[in-house]
Amino acid sequence: MNEPLKNQDFPQKPEESHSSLIQRAMQAFDRGQFVPPSGPADLLPPSLTPQAPVQAAPVQAPIVPQAPAQPYAPAPIVAPVAPPPQYGGQTYGEQAAHAPQFAPQQPAYAPAAPAPSFHRINHQRLALEGFAVPGGGANAQVEEFRLVKRQLLEQIEDLRRQGAGVEAQAILVTSALPEEGKTFVAINLAMSIAAEKDSEVVLVDLDMARSSVLSTLGLPSGPGLVDAIADPRIDVRDLVIKTDLGGLSVLPGGRPTASDSEYLASARAKAVLARLVEGHPNRVVVFDTPPVLAAALAVEVAKLSAQTVLVVKAEKTSGSAVQDAAGLLSAGCPNVQALLNGVQFSPSGRRFGTYHNYRG
What we know:
alpha/beta; 8-stranded mixed beta sheet; two-stranded antiparallel sheet; 10 helices
């Protein structure tokens, strides 16, 4: 098969002496009736006869060129320099993976909005439920909590002048028994303090079995104070939830464990409290704990607080329960103050906020 073709196998006619090698090969194989295919740049209408031999590509299959309906410009055979076209936000063909720098003119999706830096609370719902929401207008209840918080803030300043530690910035709100309104008082007191121009407040929901503070304000549960005490790798400041109520933040208690009281009685609990108020000299920490006579946790939190507010339900809580709760709390916090809740009538016209002190 590799032997060269011999002249006697393909005799030449006198008129073919000037034919090209390609033309003679085409005639020898009886393919003279086919026109060799032309390259895209050399394609011409069949009405024009080329004056010079055409450099044809290797013969593969017969191609009968069709005259175009309209004149057109031949496509270039040189690779494009510009980036390949894009369709629907993606680069056409396989070029998409190799040309990330060519962003689509219109993105296929809108970028996600950044997460808000605070959580919104339903002010209108809280006002309807009887909470003294700042900015909701003056009423008797708002004024009552203003009187209560003023006394507490003045005592904080006195404790600071006396050189008290971080406990001076902490206030415990609890009750002797359940259903006495301690969470209601804690939230109202925290919102009232948050309305101060020179103060901010962190409300800590340590009644972890019920998480009443979080559910009332519509805030998500998650790791909290006890988790930061149990795990030194956790920064308690990262767990604080800011709200859209200026000056008010909330700190969850965390996941309930069988050792919550022991964690709060540890030396690390005071270190975590110091971390929480570090760099915030005007920050007040308000603890909401389970009832004193229902769990031992409130007694341990009292040791971290310079002031304790014991909520007493009018015409419900017995005097003995109040005395027992106050005695337990005063062992850790010498400044225990009782707040009478649910008063319907008093000779002075006051309906809420009767205040007593129990000092151990």
